[in-house]
Design brief:
Organism: Yarrowia lipolytica (strain CLIB 122 / E 150)
Subcellular location: Endoplasmic reticulum membrane; Golgi apparatus membrane
Number of strands: 0
Family: Belongs to the DP1 family.
GO molecular function: membrane bending activity
Largest sheet: none
Subunit structure: Oligomer.
Shape: elongated
Radius of gyration: 29 Å
Order of helices and strands: HHHHHHHHH
Number of helices: 9
């Protein structure tokens, strides 16, 4: 066992000697008291974990756990509180989450080639799902709401039905203005 440890330490020393060529690593080693070889091995290990997260179904599974379980738990808690702020936070989250999933569904063939996609997606879902960041509201106001207003005609203080009702009433009023006095249009208010 001690032979293996000696061989590993010798290999790490050789790596340290090779890494002496890079001033950035030397500076990093001064700032944090960790040998350059450990920094490199940590980076390589982290790199392979990221690759692992993006291969097969495990990346998608971990991302969905972060996107469903954690906000789902907070949503259940929010339903039991008397205030409305946390309800709004998670209703906004679920709208953003659904929008992301629709986008992801239609672009999965492209997203497959994005390196570390599931890692970025997981970080994004945690950002929008955890209440301390308020990311869902920011993403909703910056992206989803303007898109929804264009596509679905959502008005700030009324739904699509209010807008349609106002348009219909405007059309009735315009039609009535063209009907001579004393004649009925057959439309009641």
């Amino acid at each position: 066992m001690s032979q293996i440890i000696d061989q590993v330490q010798a290999a790490l020393q050789n790596i340290d000697k090779e890494l002496e060529k890079y001033p950035a690593l030397k500076e990093l080693e001064k700032q944090i008291p960790v040998p350059k070889s450990y920094i490199l091995l940590g980076f390589v290990g982290f790199y392979f974990i990221l690759i692992f997260l993006n291969i097969g179904g495990i990346g998608q599974l971990l991302s969905n756990i972060a996107g469903l379980v954690i906000p789902g738990y907070y949503s259940l808690l929010a339903l039991e509180t008397p205030g409305k702020a946390d309800d709004t936070q998670y209703l906004t989250y679920w709208v953003v989450f659904a929008t992301l999933n629709v986008f992801e569904f239609w672009s999965k063939a492209i997203l497959y080639w994005v390196p570390f996609y599931y890692l970025f997606k997981t970080a994004f879902l945690l950002y929008i799902g955890l209440p301390q960041y308020g990311g869902a509201e920011l993403v909703y106001k910056a992206i989803v709401k303007p898109l929804a207003q264009k596509l679905v005609n959502i008005q700030p203080h009324g739904g699509p039905s209010d807008s349609l009702k106002a348009q219909a009433q405007s059309a009735v009023d315009a039609a009535e203005s063209h009907v001579p006095q004393g004649h009925s249009t057959g439309v009641s208010h």
